[in-house]
Amino acid sequence: MIKFEEALRGVLTNTKRLRTTSLSLKKAIGSVLAEDVKSKFDIPSFRKSAMDGYALCAKNLKSIPVDLRVVGTVPAGGFYPGKVKKGECVKIMTGSPLPKGTDSVVMVEFTKNSPLSSFLPHRFASRNEAVGGGGRWGCNLVRILRRVSKGENVCLKGEDIKKKKVVLKKGAIIRAPEVAVLAMLGRARIRVYKRPKVSVLCTGDELVEIGHRLLKFSHIYNSNGPMLCSLLSSMDIENQYLGIAKDKAKGLKKKIKEGLKSDLFILSGGVSMGDYDLVPRVLRSCGVKVIFHKVSIKPGKPNLFGMKGETLIFGVPGNPVSTYLSFLILIKPAIEKLMGREISLKIEKGILNRDFHQKLGKRKHFLPAWIEMKNNRWEVFPVPTYHGSADIASLLSANGFMIVDAGISFLKQNSQVNIIQW
Ligand code: AMP
Ligand code: MG
To answer: Which ligand is nearest to the CA of 221?
Structure first.
């Protein structure tokens, strides 16, 4: 039996980052970037208006209010072809390019129709319409009620992202903002580290899939299958669910051979010492090299880790809390390493909220706990009703594990304890 730290080290030293691949941006969420991404152009790529309003030259607003002739309208996606002269302005929408001869935008809220509009000679009106013109409500003279300073309400070319700048570095995780920035740069495909193909197999004669009837009183629903698949989905990993294998060598072997085609293979149940715990034996008969079997943790002692070629194999004990914990502390770090991510597993310090007793154990204990930030420190409330590795319901009121080292039987309130949060 090895220590947890040794087991984790064993997993990580045998886990190699997967190769890179070109991926459509639409499928990239959750992947890790395998290239530095530079911008080929400035963003914004032109000087644009930050507001709906009137583009003008700030120094033309010597006296306020002032009436300006509206010589055109620029809708988003359009542009004003001419140059705006003294006494003129252009109606402009947010995101539209600023016309030549203008340097600022007065928000539409600080303007009104000029009462003098109707006196404007007819020839101006028709000229304005030719360039899509018209002031507020379609008038040709607009009254500017507030001064603006030069550059006000204008986004400068390149102010968000400069041309040739490295915008995203190799190793970045693609989240929604990364997707948006890559789309802004016009990238339809990006180079990322491959995401592992992960298979999940549940073993046990007693297991029945949800949606089916429990035919014997000794049957139970398979909860590890849905839990493991959900844990993988939450990491944006597509999984291949192989269903349930009975505790019979032949059928188990067939399913195991299927699972061994993936990058990472998780088997739940059948790794302990019972008469029907066939997983270690059958794995070996399929050519799997067992790196370790049994880790000095509670729950989760029967954990098995092996390899065949590049495939990583995890056999986790079937009691649901053991399965959950094993995923969190051994399997998740391996998946993160495979896909080029930083390992997120962090052991932090917290303060125990009450006295804590337990039977003296020879293994490192992981106990479900509610962990909360209070007065600038993590306060740890072990779930009082937790009664062992089958008690997955205790995790409903937990958001982490408190770690108690081997040999400790009593901890006083306010003691410092190690914690893992999820
Ligand atoms: P095992 O690891 O196969 O010895 O199983 C230990 C305990 O976990 C037994 O009570 C099993 O019934 C239970 N168990 C095993 N697999 C699952 C599963 N997929 N879902 C829920 N409970 C399970
Ligand atoms: Mg079993």
So the answer is: 1
